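Hey L., structure's done. Input below.
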Amino acid sequence: MKYLLEISDLPRGAKVLDVGCGLGGTSRYLAKEHGCSVTGITISGRQVEIAKRLTQAETSSNNDSDKASDNVDIDVYAYPSGGDCRFIELDAEKMLEYFSSVNGKPEGGKFDAVWISEALSHFPDKPLFFRSASELLTPGNSSSRLVIADWFKAPDLTPEQERDDIQPIEDGMLLPQLCTADQYVKMAESAGLKIRRAPIDISKDVAKTWCVISLTQLTPT
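Output:
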């Protein structure tokens, strides 16, 4: 998480959509340590409950009930750094529809950054995600960026490697077909994004945990 923040060069105080936020660890970190205004979304209502409880415990002495939010049903948790975060139960496939709707714009519907860490590999419709992220980024803002960390398969695998090495991971983790980093780049470019920083392979650093993760960040054209 810290490395991704470092290489993404995310501006302090940025308005961030944390997709697949889980229990909210990244959302809290960006709000607390980087002064960001973060909206975390996850498909799990239980994760939202836990994220709110953990965040409330961190911010109980700083909670600002007057913090601006267009949706009064969304709890906003403020940090002394000036950052804040909120959590929403939302399927990522519906995030563009939600944040573009009149009644569902807790932060005005546009973000300086869309951040997604080790979640996109679970999405069955990845091109839809890239299109939605591109639409939700603030147009004409040189600071706008899509920041991704994920699991990838290596390019040019043999059918035997696909069968013996990749398919067991896909089956065991209930994943759709894994992609290469280059396939993500192509999907991003097709959605109108351009590369700010090429993918970085940190496989050797995480080999003991068997995960193969690459990092990339993209920006709207």
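Helices lie at 2-8, 25-34, 45-59, 95-100, 126-136, 159-172, 181-190. The longest helix spans residues 45-59.

-- N.
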